[in-house]
């Protein structure tokens, strides 16, 4: 039983019909209809102030212009992942309303919480260090999990695969490679281990899609302005071998706020930018 006035119910019913017809027969018109006649659920999403929204959109447009100004050596488009860790959901909605859909998070619980609160067509990337016991949470609690970019063991791949219901969309995975040799960083180091893991994902994990390779460049390499980044060269070299051995084409996720332009010049097809868009992050848990 509806408690809304008759004319409000009629208007909402007409709104939904217009949205359905426009989406079904005039997809481009649907974009404008949604702005004119928003769904009631939109009002439940957190909203940034007008000033903050303007700041975020200006920042991301600036980054996107820099991304698009660089000619990739492989001629492939470059995807921008907006890294929103430790930032409020209202910031994400400001960019969502501007048309952005790819967002990255570093902490499982934060990602789960945001995914439950925000629109279901967001394409979430998990880009933080991953423990095997957290794979189930990612696989079962986030239907619109687009990618996990930090898979570095067969055990984690198998756990993520077995935890994902086959009725849900498959999860893209990037294998993390430790190209800098730094002990504090996760990732596979040898090509033999990389190939073994890639074969398991490709052949034995039907709920996963091997999307590509990911690395985090060392601070030294990432701040060497104007020079080739040896960590990125290493990942590109591994990628060429792997593509040849598997007979497939893979993505390269490399480059962050301090080095994404150099990463694109060296073949990156996905960059992860956070602080240059959202600003400095607060300390986690007050530390």
Instruction: Report the end-to-end length measured between terminal Cα atoms.
Output: 50 Å
CATH fold description: TIM Barrel
Largest sheet: 8 strands, parallel
Structural class designation: alpha/beta
Number of helices: 12
Note the beta-strand portion.
5-15%
Fraction of residues in H or I helices: 40-55%
CATH class: Alpha Beta
**Parts with pLDDT < 50 across at least 5 consecutive residues:** 1-42
Number of domains: 1
CATH superfamily: Alanine racemase
Please, what is the average pLDDT?
87
Spell out the helices and strands N to C.
HHHEHEHEHEHEHEHHEHEH
Q: Tell me what the CATH architecture is.
A: Alpha-Beta Barrel
Tell me the Rg in angstroms.
21 Å
Shape: globular
Number of beta strands:
8
The main sheet orders its strands as 7-6-5-4-3-2-1-8
